[in-house]
Design a protein that fits this description.
Strand content: 5-15%
Number of helices: 12
Helix content: 40-55%
Radius of gyration: 21 Å
Length: 284
């Protein structure tokens, strides 16, 4: 059974392939659009940048213009269909906001996910009561947030960890993020219990990062790294900011965050010790 694909990544892959084909033919955006009778270059530009879901008929027209051989053409048609698809569990979550949808599409097709969170528990690991507190707090920045819709969308995203062939998932979380803080005790206990349940899954690894005096400084910005079953699909890093997120796909950028993840691996408690620390917190 094939793994689901990530539409956002397949759009980026398709755009890069089409841009390379156009440049191979030494054609400008204007020349291609003139041949196809397209009103402006913005349509082609958006396809090449992976910013729009491509219409398969448009892709076929582009492949004709670039005189793509049949073997390459068939492969690109598969990618184009993946890029345009609305298949999968996210189809029923039309209420999902744009920021959360980006993460959902990346997670849906990922073979491996590595997340770092210095302040809160990552979304894929949150229980509903904990997630509600975080979403309500976010309304201070964006009052238009629909709390119930956001909760349903988050629960839908979490299903990726329980599918038949789930991604390998690793979370680096500070002990500050996993501590009780100002949250109600019952919420905190439910959340730690969920972490212990998920840590028992063979494909899930949770590693605590101790903070405090004498410790090496940790990154301030949360980030997530995604790899995909097709090695030609671009590995991706998402940087989480207050009001927007940044998606990185350049190899030099991704490599830097791979090195950052390696540093976190050295600093984090082993998986087994992480589980013991969390269990002791519940027993205290």
């Amino acid at each position: 059974m094939p793994l689901p694909t990530s539409p956002i990544i397949r759009r980026a892959r398709l755009g890069a392939e089409l841009r390379q084909l156009r440049r191979r033919e030494a054609l400008t955006l204007e020349q291609v659009c003139e041949r196809l009778g397209w009103a402006s270059t913005s349509k082609l530009s958006r396809i090449e940048l992976g910013q729009s879901r491509p219409d398969l008929a448009d892709v076929l027209d582009l492949l004709d213009v670039y005189e793509v051989p049949s073997w390459q053409r068939d492969a690109l048609i598969v990618i184009a269909r993946d890029a345009a698809t609305s298949r999968g569990w996210w189809k029923s979550l039309g209420e999902m906001g744009e920021r959360q949808r980006t993460y959902a599409e990346l997670e849906a097709g990922a073979a491996g996910i590595v997340e770092y969170q210095p302040v809160i528990v990552p979304g894929l690991l949150q229980v509903p009561s904990y997630a509600r507190l975080r979403i309500v707090a976010g309304q201070l920045i964006d009052p238009s947030v629909d709390v119930e819709a956001d909760l349903r969308a988050r629960a839908g995203r979490q299903a990726v960890l329980h599918r038949v062939e789930p991604p390998r998932y690793t979370a680096y979380v500070t002990d500050l993020a996993c501590g009780p803080g100002d949250d109600p005790v019952e919420v905190w206990r439910d959340q730690v219990g969920r972490l212990l349940e998920l840590a028992a899954l063979p494909h899930v690894t949770i590693r605590l990062l101790p903070v405090g005096a004498g410790r090496r400084p940790l990154p301030l910005t949360p980030f997530s790294c995604y790899s995909f079953p097709d090695p030609a699909d671009p590995r991706t890093v998402m940087l989480e900011a207050l009001t927007t997120d940044v998606r990185l796909t350049a190899a030099t950028d991704v490599d830097r965050y791979d090195r950052m993840a390696d540093c976190l691996l050295e600093m984090a408690l082993p998986k087994e010790e992480t589980v013991r620390v969390l269990a002791r917190q519940l027993d205290a």
